[in-house]
Design goal:
This is Transposase. This protein is an alpha/beta fold and 278 residues long. The protein folds into two domains: 81 residues, no CATH class; 117 residues, 2-Layer Sandwich (Nucleotidyltransferase, domain 5). The protein contains nine helices and five strands; from the N terminus they run ααααααβββαβαβα. The chain has a five-stranded mixed sheet with strand order 3-2-1-4-5. Strand 1 and strand 2 form a beta hairpin. Helix 7 runs parallel beside helix 8. The longest helix is centred in the middle third of the chain and has 36 residues. The N terminus is likely disordered.
Length: 278
């Protein structure tokens, strides 16, 4: 919890640690309608905040700060975080027909039965994931903020606070054109720390596996820009896609990011060609 004496800052920080799924469960249990993720105009109104929930929150906050929450504070908090968790591209879940969901679950159940493994039901999985997702996001964001600060400190210590030099690469859950997921990862070359990861589903790219890495890289660039992280160079494999996307991004954002080929990928390319002609 927060420290006494720094009321404003600590109160705000600790308020954000109150589990969002608790707020959502409390409001839903008292007749409120959760945010409809398909409708951008949906929101939680002040009238939907139960009085006893406000009392509980004020009781909790008084243990570490002399503040009194209003209904409008809770509604604004819920609106912000519900939109963040359910609309953020980092947690985007494509709409999957219920019939397709059940078919995939049936295949997984058959596979686990053959191996003698016990798996939770589809409804149990969805319920647990929905309840845990907000907390996962909170913990992830705290860790990511610490990592970004470590990288900033490392650059400042060497007298060159910006821009950063990073490496980017994509990885798929299976080889060939049958991949369902693609992870695009950015790593700072100075500290060797992971900055950010984007995960793209094939359902988000019209079921085209080859388009997932491009989409993930685009999201990664947008995320770097949203965090005001200036990038000087990006090292990647030999895929021409990266060069084209960086060129397009530079024209759009007015930046001058340089594209470098990763030495390991380049060495492997040269090695394969030397073997072919020898």
């Amino acid at each position: 919890m927060g420290r006494h004496g720094d009321t404003g800052k600590c109160a705000s920080w600790d308020l954000e640690q109150i589990k969002t799924q608790y707020l959502l469960a409390e409001v839903t249990a008292n007749g409120a309608q959760p945010l409809n993720t398909a409708d951008d105009t949906s929101y939680v109104s002040e009238a939907q905040i139960p009085a006893h929930l406000l009392d509980r929150l004020n009781t909790a906050t008084r243990t570490f700060a002399e503040i009194t929450l209003r209904v409008s504070d809770v509604a604004r908090f819920m609106n912000f975080y519900m939109k963040k968790y359910f609309r953020s591209h980092t947690w985007r879940i494509p709409n999957v027909p219920e019939e397709q969901d059940e078919q995939e679950q049936e295949k997984l159940t058959q596979w686990s039965t053959e191996l003698g493994l016990g798996l939770p039901s589809l409804s149990a999985y969805k319920r647990v994931f929905t309840e845990l997702r907000p907390s996962i996001e909170v913990v992830h964001e705290k860790h990511q903020n610490r990592t970004i600060q470590q990288i900033r400190t490392a650059y400042e210590r060497e007298g060159c606070p910006t821009p950063w030099d990073i490496a980017v690469d994509g990885a798929f859950d299976s080889r060939g054109h049958s991949a369902e997921l693609c992870k695009v990862l950015a790593v700072d070359l100075r500290t060797k720390l992971c900055i950010h990861t984007e995960v793209v589903s094939r359902r988000e790219t019209g079921n085209v596996s080859g388009a997932m890495e491009k989409e993930g890289f685009r999201r990664l660039l947008r995320w770097l820009r949203s965090r005001d992280i200036a990038v000087g160079s990006i090292s990647t494999d030999r895929s021409a896609m990266y060069g084209k996307e960086i060129e397009s991004y530079n024209a759009e954002s007015g930046q001058n990011i340089k594209w470098h080929l990763d030495p390991w990928h380049m060495a492997r390319y040269v090695h394969k060609n030397l073997q072919a002609v020898s």
